Amino acid sequence: MKPFLSLVLFFLFIGFSAKAQNAINVTGTWNLTVETDAGSGTPTFVLKQDGEKITGTYSGQLGEAPLTGTIRGEVIHLEFAIEGNKIIYDGKATSTEMEGKVDLAGMATGTFKGKKK
């Protein structure tokens, strides 16, 4: 009986851990401030989260583009392409704020901060 109880407790623990990791929900409209060595901007991201997968749109100084990304725990990764140039945002997020680093296709790098609208 003890092995069965241990097995049940193990699966309950795994279930709670997985649920806790997905507690952050970034779905919504985000207003960001970006500072790079090539200038600054205030893009808007509209994100939709499905588990760890993120889809959405970027709108800002570079134009508009569909984006994809992931969130694992609080680590967020977003990317999109403008005229073939890959833009990458990597950082940390909560359900209401995010910040991190941005790489503008290797032509400029910088930081970003943002809040959910």
Automatic annotation (TrEMBL):
Keywords on record: Signal
This protein's record includes keyword Signal: yes
Signal peptide: 1-20
The keyword Signal is annotated on this UniProt entry: yes
Protein name as annotated: Uncharacterized protein
Lineage per the UniProt record: Bacteria, Pseudomonadati, Bacteroidota, Cytophagia, Cytophagales
